[in-house]
UniProtKB/TrEMBL annotation:
GO terms for molecular function: 2-oxoglutarate-dependent dioxygenase activity; metal ion binding. Residues 102-336 form the TauD/TfdA-like domain. This is Gamma-butyrobetaine dioxygenase. Keywords: Dioxygenase, Iron, Metal-binding, Oxidoreductase. It comes from the Bacteria. The lineage of its organism: Bacteria, Bacillati, Actinomycetota, Actinomycetes, Kitasatosporales. GO terms for biological process: carnitine biosynthetic process. Its cofactor is Fe(2+); L-ascorbate. InterPro entries: AlphaKG_dependent_hydroxylases, GBBH-like_N, GBBH-like_N_sf, TauD-like_sf, TauD/TfdA-like. Residues 5-71 form the Gamma-butyrobetaine hydroxylase-like N-terminal domain. Belongs to the gamma-BBH/TMLD family. Pfam families: GBBH-like_N (PF06155), TauD (PF02668). The keyword Iron applies. CDD domains: CAS_like.
Amino acid sequence: MLPADVPALWLRDNCACPDCRDPLTGQKLFQITDLPEHLTVDAVRPLADQDGWELVWAPDGHVSRYTAAWLAQPAQPDPRTEDAKQLWGSAADLADRLPEADWTAYREDDAVRLRMLEAVARLGFCLLRDVPLRDGQVQEVARSFGYVRETNYGTQFEVRVEERPNNLAFTNVAITPHTDNPYRDPVPTLQLLHCLVNDAEGGDSGLVDGFAAAAALREGDPAAYAALTGTPVPFAFRDDTTELGAHRPLIATDPVGRVNEVRFNNRSLGTLRLPAAQTEAFYAGYRAFARLLLDPARQLDFRLNPGDCLVFDNTRLLHARTAFARGGARHLQGCYADLDHLFSTMAVLGRKEAQPC
Ligand SMILES: [Zn+2]
């Protein structure tokens, strides 16, 4: 039997007949306002060739077909929200194992590539080893699953000590855990860092799961969590030629309250101008969240060696760097990319895998 509680309008909106969907693209050919206002099912017949039903609609007599398998499909979780993630609150949660693969295997074996991209989607990062030590190679890594996002820092940026830095990243000081470019909307959702040289004393890397910290804040300090999800914060960046700003909360949630983005960067948090009570609530929340995020126990520490390329979700993970000796050689090349195409490449690789040889 066709399940009784399936809304008629939902069924009709999902009709896959060639009048309703373009057979070539699968895209819908009608507007919701084109459908009859009082739509009812006039007749239901079992499909002759497979398990499912053919429906005849009143008042327009349109005929739709639905398989039982299609009706039974579960809803897909939004891959950007915490629901689709494996949260980790410490290195131990990752069983002290990094999601890593050799570049050549990643390039040549679709299953390895899929595993690495799934690690970025699920854990927030992956580490590619033995990536060729070539200028611009980091962009090749981005192009292996998507597109480079160009910004005012260029198509790629050099993370090394500069004479006149426009950002503390380009000095030798310690950089505490942060997300990049919170002053952009949309924010670059992925970041890549490719290590070319790391002979310096210090200069180690760290990652923190911002979604796990947000979940811990929600659990332990609901008022702080409410203050952060409910307060848009002015993030800002300026130098000689650029002035950027975005008003976004430190913890963003989707319409049903699931965490889907964290922005945390003390260097680019601008000045809030709110009523005193709201300001105080925000600062209490900000301090509570910062305590969690900056707790060394939450940080996964490792050292990037020449040839290592880290790919991570900049909407979720914070990254950090210890200070290193001035004059010590350290050179990383970085670029931004976006999750859209990482998810797309995962889906297409999954499609390939599902097909019989
Ligand atoms: Zn139709």
